[in-house]
From TrEMBL:
The keyword Amino-acid biosynthesis applies. Pfam families: ACT_AHAS_ss, ALS_ss_C. It comes from Planktomarina temperata RCA23. This is Acetolactate synthase small subunit. NCBIfam families: acolac_sm (TIGR00119), PRK11895.1 (NF008864). Keywords: Amino-acid biosynthesis, Branched-chain amino acid biosynthesis, Transferase.
């Protein structure tokens, strides 16, 4: 009987059961992963997520130590606590991964994102877009008679709020870098 349950994927120790948990138990986590800066490393890290059906909400990658050939991958993902632990353990087993930090559980951290917004409009909508941009401390990085391009730096929530306010004013295009994060202190 036990073999039958395992075959059908109903064993309580099955990795598939971890993903079919309650959606309301999902938590958002920011992971900082130090890796060797060499070809194929990013593909291996991303393959871990896609191969197991985990979602990446945000991904940023950049070299942080030129002489040491080290890059930092910042990944924002979500899942149950068991899934997050499984992701961290599997990341740590990839050979060119040096270190994995879960900034969400290790203490306070700072998250920032850069975004660009193109807002097209005339008249009152144009004036309102400029007024709101000032409130959000957005910089105008390009201007034509028909549009503005704003640069906004801040938390993902600030970026989302700015986008929500610009949509009715003529938001036509948006680009986001993804989250960059460091622990405080």
């Amino acid at each position: 009987m036990n073999a039958l349950n395992i075959t059908k994927g109903t064993s309580s120790k099955s990795a598939y059961n971890l993903r079919s948990g309650h959606a309301d138990l999902n938590e958002r986590h920011t992971l900082a992963v130090l890796v060797a800066n060499e070809p194929g490393v990013l593909a291996r890290v991303i393959g871990l997520f896609s191969g197991r059906g985990y979602n990446i909400e945000s991904l940023t990658v950049a070299e942080v130590d030129h002489e040491g050939h080290t890059s930092r991958i910042t990944i924002v993902t979500s899942g149950t606590p068991q899934i997050i632990e499984q992701i961290k353990a599997q990341l740590g087993r990839i050979i060119p991964v040096y270190d994995v930090h879960d900034l969400t559980v290790e203490g306070p951290s700072v998250e920032r994102e850069l975004s660009l917004f193109k807002v097209s409009g005339k008249g009152e909508k144009r004036v309102e877009a400029l007024r709101l941009a000032d409130v959000f401390r957005a910089n105008v990085v390009d201007s034509t008679l028909d549009s503005f391009t704003f640069e906004v730096v801040g938390s993902p929530e600030k970026i989302d709020a700015f986008a929500d306010l610009m949509r009715p004013l003529g938001l036509s295009e948006m680009a986001r870098t993804g989250v960059a994060a460091l622990s405080r202190g």
